[in-house]
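Notes from the 1:1 (GR / supervisor)

We went over the backlog. Supervisor wanted to see one worked example end to end before approving the batch request, so GR pasted a single chain during the call. The sequence is below; no edits were made to it. Supervisor asked that the structure be written out right there so they could see what the output format looks like.
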Amino acid sequence: MSTIVNTIQKMKHNKEYESYFFKNASKYQNLYLWLEPLKKEGYFTPKEDLNLVLAYLEAVSLQNKDEPKTEVTETLLDIVNQIINYRKEDGTRIDNYITDWFMGKIIFNLPKEQITLDHIKFISISLKESKYQGVLSSEIETIVLPVLLENEMKSHLLELLKIIFDYKIVNKGTSYHEREPLIEAYCLESLLKKHSQGMIKLIGIDGLKLVIGIIKQVVLEDKSSFNNVWIATIEEHSQNSFPDRYDNQVVLFTRDLLEGLDGIKIKNYIKSFLKHKHPLFKRLALHTMNQKYDELKDIFWEWFNTGITVNTTFRHELYKFLEDRSKQFTEEEFSAVIKWIESLKYPKYNAEETPEQLEKYTAYRKKEWLLCLKQHNKKAQELYEKYDAINPSEIEHAGFDMWSSGFTRVGNRSPIEDVDVFCTKSVDDIVIYIKTFNPSTVKKEKFTSDGDLVEGLANDLASCIKKNPQKFSNKIEIFHDLHFIYKYHLVYGFVNGWRDKQKFDWEKLFDFILKELNDDFFQSEEQYAKWLRGEIANLIEYGTKDDKNAFGKEHLPKAKEILFRLLNNKEDEKDEQNNNLGIHVLNSINGKALHALINYALRYGRLNSTKQIKWEDDVKAFFTHELMQNTIYSKSIFTILGHYLPHLSFLDKQWVDDNFNRIFPIENDALWEISITGYFGYATTVYIDIYEQFKKHQHIAKALEYEFKSKEAKRKVIEHICIMFTSKKDNQTIFDVIDTKNRDNILEIIRFIWQLFRDKIDKNVLSQINILWSKIYQTFKDDDSSEAQAIFSTLSKWFVYLDVITDAIMPQLKLTAKYTEKNHNAYFIIEQLARLVEKNPKFVAELYIEMLSNSVVPTYKQENIENTVETLYRLKEYDNALEICNRYRANNVYFLNELSKKYEAIKR
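Structure output shown during the call:
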């Protein structure tokens, strides 16, 4: 020790020696030996600049972390507390961000028992009072949170959460309050991405209470906060253009927190959200009820049936809820939603609006709501068709009142003062105006460019054509000299006019297009020339897809000539990994041409329906040739072939049969996945002959083992297998799936059959379900793995299929009861046991006891549990009923006490 003391004295008189020691301190062993002597000499006394000794203190803390020593910990703690609590004579802190940074690192190298809530508050003070928050902000993610999460320091984490979501008001010259997080915005986004799930797991319902309090405080200060302009959707969506903003980050975390919590525990929160005036709470409630529909659906229907008025503030979340969950609605629930849709009123926007215009607008809006129901309900489909007849316009961006296509077109402005007057001009005058239009002479609004004005004028042209396409088709030849931007909007106007069932001269329009499709056109790199290709394809698709609104058959030859020019001059494809090729092909220029060709062929086929082969040789030859290729373009081809396979069978079944294994090339994984996904991704009907082809050629077997990019494809394959099994068309494949013991596939079987038949069970289906249930039980009865437990838990849903319980099926029911809470499914059994107890009191009691014997202590719904136990007492199952009550008491749950006392008194 005398050597240490002598060295310190030498350091105090030689600054270079002192500096050398501290700079190299991290290289030395047993640094703790120096700690107390250095402290006595005042090296760690709080002052403006402690930079010299900070690295040493951190090195001591790291060595002590590896080999803790009580006296070292206490000395370090004393030093840290003195520094962070020090105040100058005027009461202010020493603002040294480097000192604060090192203190933060040292504190979280201490044993967890020594880290106090005051240390967390120090972080808050430093962030609020320092001019340099960035350094300490980043350490919250890398140092502070890992320690709190690893050691499950919940109270500390809750205190830290207040800091993470603390904010400051920044004046940016806007008309609204601009909030910024106390920590750096990029740090907030980064730490939430990395640690959200860990935090959510630890803080639970207490964290929700805290975050909701923060949101309410923001709302109290600024009623315009958390609006749907900045936060377009609660779910992840490309329309959320500003995910790094403070408001968005708070909502994102709250959403994930609600999703991560048990549905039963958050019921009261969801109820209160629905009553709150600020729309964010309704949006969060609707999103959460969508995600946890089975647990929270009662709250939704109670709220919905009180009568609701929808405005733009939460319309999207309600639409998303109906879109996602309508397949699970009962007929009564469908009736309630349809009645509500029919009651919707849309007021006139202006005095000049005619009754016919209002009727069309109302039809469009009602059609939009019906769009998310019609696939699962006949009445909704009929109403949709009724309103579609009034307004056949295609629904664009369903569920959204606002839609952003990016920033390039935001500034578009029409240079025309009165577009309606502009449209009444002659076609010659309109073209002259376009040719002579000079945007540089127009006085512009802020952020509006010359290009925006040209785009605006082109949009006006499209609007005029949509209103009166016949007028423009009569004089269409004079548009050849215009720029591609106007030609694109020209065709776009005709497309929309035709969709509105307006008439025009197709012959002249096709002649115009054929003249445009020359070598110069296809060599052009102009963006609007490329987009014009896609719009021409759209024109032919809309002109052929619906026989009730199709152009005359005399125009088919020119339509085909146009399509083959597009197909023979295809756009270069980029070799990109598209997660959803169906969407890509729908929107790409090449994809639009292929969709149009198929719809053309189907129109031709319907006109020649008496023939065995209903398509033309050149169309058939095109697809036959493309089947032999393996290029980037082939991705689009194989997507289209899979998507339209049943329609191709209508055109030429023999061609489909002969080429089945070329359309689904089982040896080429990339193209096989594309065509299989194309088929199953869009299949809404099970075609038995196609299914048997898939099975015969081993495509089903491969699909079950294959890791698809799209989970939807695998899910649809399993749904087809289930439908074939329950209809007794394929009794083996579903057993093969179970024999593989693939948990995800088996869970999908259980869930799909439950969703499909829970409200409409017939004896034939029930017999198949019982066979399948027994097969699952026999396969997993001796398997205690977590996968098997999850499967038995999910089988809780199938209790809806029980009526009379027998000794024979009790073993499989007991396994489900034993593991029901593995996937949080106890409330399914509780609800069904309340239904079954009258006919099966002894068995119901045994199943309750099985749950309670395996640490499953359900409390929801309490009234169902009380009714079940009371029925057991009433039906003389005294011993079992008492056993259930006693087991609840043993688990500190006492709501059955009064019931137990009442019947025990009667028994005595």
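Supervisor's comment: Residues 185-221 form the longest helix (37 residues).
Batch request approved.
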